[in-house]
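Researcher: Here's the sequence for the chain we discussed earlier.
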Amino acid sequence: MNREATIYSLYNIKVDETSSNVAAARDRALRKGQRIALEQLFRRIILKNDRKKLPTFKDNEVVEFISGFEINEEKRSSVRYIASLVVHFNRSKINDVLSFYKIPFAETLGTSVSVLPVLEKGGAILLWEEGNGWLDAWHQHDVINNLVPISTPFPTLKNKLYISGLQARTNNQKLIETFISENRINDLIIAYAVIGKNLSAGKLTLDIELKRNSLKNKDDSVALLSVSVPYLDETEKLNYTALFKAGVDVTTDWVDDSWKSKVLVSYGSASTILVKGNLLAVDDWLFMQKQLAKVNLVRKVSLKGISTQAVDLEIEFAGDPEQLSLSLEQQGLSLEKSKKDQVWIISLGKRFGGKDNLNVY
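Model: Thanks. This is the structure I predict for it:
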């Protein structure tokens, strides 16, 4: 599947509708599922604060954005319809509407991160222990449609030996870095959550502290988030399930928006740069073409010159060179400016196909 299809395709859209007959239930379910998918697409590619700039689209308008859909896990009775949808959107039409409302958007999937959910409950700090509903909520949450791929470690014996909830909470960098290294994680976000009760307002609250950890980049900044839900659920029990779900949603928004802020572009804006690289193998140029085609920011690649040893390209793209470099990096391509003569250099790394780096000018 290419990069564009990944960005503009939404998966695991669950629908469950009942009506007077199964045909009516199916029609209602498909309309609802397509609307949910559109909302999730906008959640994926635009900033949280920009969502309110968009209108509520009518059903016939939602359909206009869709290029196709697939139906999986279909079940039906005489009055009920259940299914899981994959919805594909038309990139040009989505870009057009965002341009009309002057909303920048992101088309580059981020590098995967892991979230370590630590919970303070009743004076205890929980991570791998039973009763950590915060950890359970992350394991149950479907993050397939996030812009940044997110994983959550499981309470294996190895992980329990590497780090505890208290050690994660007290920012024990030696153990945190060991955990990152042993699990081969890019970034580890420690999500420390504290449950509160606002009895006068009839609310449960969850205060969340997010700390990003990486072996490559040191960042001491902390993000503080908070959510609340009604105190009791419909069965008159404490509404922890909804509370933790709201916490996961606001945290994944933060993760996605942190990445979006680096790669946001406006539709219609374009720049061009000239790039150079040496070719070490016969298929290096073909491999480079394949990877460039997967980068949504790249509008056009013009071949200006090629020999058995070198390639000269002109790349038309959206955004600025730094954003292009980040987007290329996700496809195993490096774009850097030569310190010697200030020429842009494109190279292939080992991330895809086991290729060696290209020698550069």
